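Late entry, written up from scratch paper. The run itself happened at the end of the previous shift, but nothing got recorded in the book at the time, so transcribing now.
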Amino acid sequence: MNLNDNLPDSWALTALDQVAYIEMGQSPDSRFYNAEGTGLPFFQGKAEFGIRFPEVRKWCSEPTKIAEAGDVLLSIRAPVGPTNIAQVCSCIGRGLAAIRAEKGVNQLYLFYFFRHIESWLSEQGTGSTFAAISGQFVKQIEFALAPTEEQLRIVEKLEELFSDLDAGVAELKAAQKKLAQYRQSLLKAAVEGSLTAEWRTKNTPKETGAQLLERILKERRARWEEKQLARFKEQAKTPPKGWQDKYPEPVQPDTTNLPELPEGWVWASVDQVGEVFLGKMLDKTKHQTGAMLPYLRNISVRWGSIETHDLPEMYYEEDELERYGLASGDVLVCEGGEPGRAAVCGKEHEKLKYQKALHRVRLFSLYESDLLVFYLEHLAKTGMLEQYFTGSTIKHFTKESFIALPIPLPPICEQSEIVEHLKLAIQCAQEQDAAIIHSLTQAAAQRKNILKSAFSGQLVLQDPNDEPASLLLERIRAERQKGESSTKKRSSRKKVAKL
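Output as recorded:
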């Protein structure tokens, strides 16, 4: 680590263990863990440890290593670098180190120093399984020691600046949360009909949702018959008597306990308004011939968008190209991962295929693709979609459940009005969110610059009357030697007493 080489003359660079006591964590025997609040709060570190102090999830009745209230807690493995201040006396596991400043070194000054080097520390971890730093490494961290009085001035200035900065960040995050809530309220209003309530008073559709559903079902049957006739022709066969009676009727929606829809709307099932197909299963041992083509996976589909960078490829036979192909307007829906997450395909996706972890919904041109995505998002974000999932640990949105999903069917002109209104409002909200993210990024950069200024001696003015840090170091060493000497004397007396 290269701290500023041009530190003020009154400062000193020293190893951390010369100015602080370091306690490396150690996990106690699991027999002493409990969740009833007996003993000391236990913190292991791990990924949940960060700027926000974690909630107590576990206690330890016989702790091995202890952090005192006020100690700086440093995460030393998976991840390396995040710091916090122990709020109470705690038991610490091997993912943490507790650091306590010597007399003359301000504990908050020590804490802010670790916030200053957090990014650097995050790059220092080693290990094949997960990143970690050793106790010896922690001891040798180069520490910028300012005179005691200047440390106090630096801490006061940092508290003042960060108080203002934190207030601004809190306002930005509150605005960000409100935008997320606004999006949810928009979706709710859209799928329940209140978004277009005023529009309906001024516009009378040419057909109701029920009449539209009849038209969709006719088109659905016509498509099936067309495919059947094409198959007979391909096989040079005459359609047998009664072949039309084999038409598979779509699954009817179960409307039990569903909310009442606006006048002119009707409930339909996904199976009634579109064809649903799962993608191709990835099996490298079986699929070794055909055209090697890029395909979309579960992680490729986000809410309302499709990511196409770094796509994997697999073989597709000639007769699979259409079956696993995509067309503009198709809706891709996640079967697992975050079940129900969905997005609409565009022209740019028509050269891609899709894997079995995704459902492809090809709608019958009379239902807006975006409306289906918005409805799925509404159900997912409110938790209402979970009732259609299978699996206790890993959730799946099976084809059987998906095609039976009830969806609201407004008149076609009202569908267009809803989608247009939503897209415009969501775009505006996204622009505001992007501006907030930019401001949060700027705040984070400003925080780093403030800390850099603080630990290069540029944040506050130096006072020539302050005792130099070099003398402080000498006094700390002398106190330590004195303490070690006293310990040795006590040990010698105990030996004599035994004799």
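Residues 191 and 375 are 6 Å apart (CA to CA).
(Scratch paper discarded after transcription.)
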